[in-house]
Amino acid sequence: MDFLNAIVALSNFVLIPAVAYGSQLALGALGVTLIYGILRFSNFAHGDTMAFGAMVTILFTWWFQSMGWHLGPLPTALLALPFGIVATGLLVLITDRVVYRFYRRVKAKPIVSVMASIGVMFVMNGLVRFIIGPGDQNFADGTRFIISARDFKAWSGLAEGLSLRTSQVITVITAVLVVAALFWFLNRTRTGKSMRAFSDNEDLALLSGINPERVVLITWLIVGALATIAGVLYGLDKSFKPFTYFQLLLPIFASAIVGGLGNPLGAIAGGFVIAFSEVTVTYAWKKVLGYLLPDSLEPSSLVQLLSTDYKFAVSFAILVVVLLFKPTGLFKGKSV
Amino acid sequence: MSKPFDAPGYNRDGSIVNPEGRGEFTPGPQHGKARPAPGGPFLIGEAMTGGYSKSGPDILTGCTIAVDKGEIAVIVGPNGAGKSTAMRALFGMLYLSSGAVRLDGEDITDLAPQARVIKGMGFVPQTHNIFTSLTVEENLEMGGFIRKDDITETMQQVYDLFPILKEKRTQAAGELSGGQRQQVAVGRALMTRPKVLMLDEPTAGVSPIVMDELFDRIIDVARTGLPVLMVEQNARQALEIADKGYVLVQGANAHTGTGKELLADPDVRASFLGG
Fold it and tell me: How many CB pairs (< 8 A) connect A and B?
């Protein structure tokens, strides 16, 4: 019984939240890795692109809610998501037209684009705060739990409860669908292959008649969609606050680099590595250990390795270790 | 201390920018249209003078290169003679102050490189001439990217020409040996069904046996009626298979003739065929 309790507590506080968080990071890291692979720079504005997408989705959600439209047990945000994707797609295309295209034309070093993206980050950041404000916004509705802790306890008779939130299930399902669609697109379609070809060798792509501007356009659209989806899922699962999205940049970059920059498969693996490390290191293990260890060994402290306030240190530490010992990432990405 | 960020070997941090696969081609200023210009050889770069920038030094001075249907034309010459540059000039990657490029009865001097691909120029660069992370088949598929029709027939022809590629078609092209990579590179260029095939040192860095094999394949390609123009470092072997040879010295034509004539020419022999 104690063993079961330990497993349930572990699932409830570590496994399920980490899987959901990992999916969100993976979606974010996929966007970063695509820009890195095809436009050849690290896009620092990615976190704020996510915030913008989530913000537009929230505004539409509120409007739909005021009109009385909803999806029953599912959050209304899913209905508003396509509008958020379109708006974000437009925003990134405008940004590309106004900012990045010039640097491509003059064949500027990619580091110039990196610096430009930091500027774009500040602009987007300001835009989002200007429109929706810097505070916390709540937009989740529909059924909150698929399995609530109380129901689970009553059903299983265990002391520990297991709760499964709708947002967590939606996050994982959406992430799986999106990733499957993306991989199908990159590996099976002509346009997807031309994107990989362009990423591999720009000059040869040109010689083969692949239009670089078209590849860039499609990349931005995909990245806009990925960022919006990741942003909305994160907002549904936790809460929406512009500053949090800016902070997400670190774990997202860590995920992309740990997996191997420029490698989509690596971005996903990296997302889960970072999420699981972050959650396990900041979790107070007292409860689980209490169930597993004999009474005499029961820990008196919380057995929390790191306070949640320092969770970013985890991403940072992993990033440093990976860059020191396996610079190409877990999967073979570009040599870093 | 004050080294610029992009100095060689200074910034090795690839987590910020992606150093791989960046475009290095510097297209010339061309962005005009093709004009009809009937007559003359199938492809000719006539009296080309120009360099890599508008104000920079001229690398080519009055250089003429031509190739006709079913022929193999070879450009040879000492290092730094402007062999590859002459080929790049034909492909529109140079600032030409005078001279003209004509292909199949059209004056294409003002066309951008991309437009020349569509006009039927198949170009195989010396290095970075395959998509290393794509499979062999995907490489060929990308070669046929501009075509709207069915490419399977052309792919079959390429596989007939290079049987080893069919065997390795699901393998990443980057895992192949040097000779096989060159076959992929030539195959990719053939996929566009070009009107003329331009090869920049196809045998660079491959073993002599593989080189002979590659030359045999190139002869096969030329026999189908496709004009082949190539720059070669291995002058003797290249001239043996050449219908036309151009010896360039310092960006200008030094000797021109059939391959056999050039091989027999005492001047050519003395200057760089090693006697």
Answer: 119
pLDDT tens figures, B202-229: 888 888 888 888 899 899 989 888 999 9
pLDDT bin (cut points 50, 70, 90) of residue A125 is very high
Asked whether the beta carbons of A47 and A228 are under 8 A apart, the reply is no
- Chain A residues contacting B via beta carbons under 8 Å: 36-37, 40-42, 107, 109-111, 113-114, 190, 193-194, 196-197, 199-212, 253, 257, 261-262, 323, 327, 334-336
A315-to-A23, A258, B215 alpha-carbon distances in Å: 16, 10, 54
Please give the Cα distance from B227 to A331 (Å, whole number).
44
Query: Which residue from A244, A243, A264 is spatially nearest to A255, judged by alpha carbons?
Result: A264
Of A256, A291, A242, the closest CA to residue A10 belongs to A291
Closest CA to A27 of A245, A316, A243: A245
Q: What is the ipTM of this complex?
A: 0.86
Instruction: For A2-325, give the CATH class.
Output: mainly alpha
Closest residue on chain B to A109 (Cα): B6
Q: Which two tokens stand for residue B16?
A: 């910020």
